[in-house]
Write a structure and sequence with these properties.
alpha/beta; Rossmann fold; eleven-stranded mixed sheet; 13 strands
Length: 305
């Protein structure tokens, strides 16, 4: 686990993809007396607004700038005219609702202020404001769905579920469309829920709900009539041993949507993204689906009503 903790910090230094021609510079925002940083990636100049807005949340030990390379989402988002924002957590972590978080800063206030700033400065499609995160960022995305349902219409959680400590406090003001991705062989964020790896005391630890319990929670919160049976998806990458099944929420309220992608044999990774560490340490990155493509399509297809 110590080797994983050290190596995960390398993800923070990953350079962004080759999209710096539009000035993906780090910017700052004053929130609660603190200077908070983020990277903004704008759509091509010929893209017509208003633009969907997608916030990408790094995992523990990461930084926002590394999310473009990790996810490979920029090209797909550019074609769809998205604004991408990659904020930074304090000390490279988010206050995601776990009682074990060391820095309980007001990250909800930061995200709300960041959305305000971008909506003030650019033509944002306010019916298509979404958040996607991995690991600590995924748990935080769940909390954002709980606390900012009036601002954020969709969340996508990759390798992270709802914090057990926060589940009883989660009362979304309105239905939120939810994408959940989970690897059954995740060695850090257990698919079956329970204790999160703390890397010998260097990580945040704590406990999370299982993938199934998290999806069941959102099914109830969104007033869905239930969940479909798991449907196996095609496996186009024949050399990839992972397999993916999909469950969907049925007849959810106010046009919200719920989808669960279970990656059988998948690890603590972004589906279709960078295998940032050897599979021996973090598990496999599936090549059967691309989470970036799915997220962009999901946000476009399910605007907040």
């Amino acid at each position: 686990m110590m080797r994983i903790a050290a190596a995960l910090l390398l993800v923070a230094t990953l350079p962004a993809c080759a999209h710096s021609d539009r000035g993906d510079a780090t910017r700052t925002l004053q929130v609660d007396g603190k200077s908070r940083s983020y990277v903004l990636h704008l759509p091509p100049a010929d893209a017509k607004g208003p633009h969907p807005l997608l916030l990408l949340l790094h995992g523990g030990g990461g930084r926002g700038r590394g999310m473009l390379r990790l996810t490979g989402i920029a090209d797909r988002a550019d074609r769809a005219g998205f604004i991408l924002a990659m904020p930074d957590g304090i000390d490279r972590h988010w206050n995601d609702g776990r009682a074990t978080i060391r820095n309980p800063q007001d990250d909800i206030g930061f995200i709300a202020a960041l959305i305000d700033r971008i909506e003030r400065d650019y033509p944002v499609d306010r019916s298509r404001v979404a958040v996607a995160g991995i690991s600590n960022g995924a748990i935080f995305a769940q909390r954002i769905g709980c606390d900012l349902a009036g601002r954020v219409g969709a969340i996508a959680a990759i390798a992270g579920t709802l914090a057990s400590d926060y589940a009883s406090h989660c009362r979304p003001a309105r239905p939120v469309s939810v994408l959940q991705f989970g690897g059954t062989d995740d060695p850090i964020m257990p698919y079956a829920g329970g204790k999160v790896a703390d890397f010998g005391g260097r990580g945040e630890g704590g406990n999370v709900l299982s993938v199934d319990d998290t999806v069941a929670f959102w099914s109830r919160a969104d007033g869905c009539a239930g969940l479909s049976a798991a449907q196996p998806l095609p496996s186009p990458a024949t050399s990839d041993p992972t397999r993916v099944t999909l469950r969907t929420g049925e007849h959810c309220r106010a046009g919200s949507a719920l989808q669960l992608y279970s990656i059988h044999g998948g690890g603590h990774t972004w589906p279709g993204g960078l295998q940032y560490l050897p599979a021996l340490l973090i598990g496999r990155t599936t090549r059967q689906i691309d989470a970036g493509d799915i997220i962009v399509r999901f946000v476009l297809d399910h605007p907040r009503r």
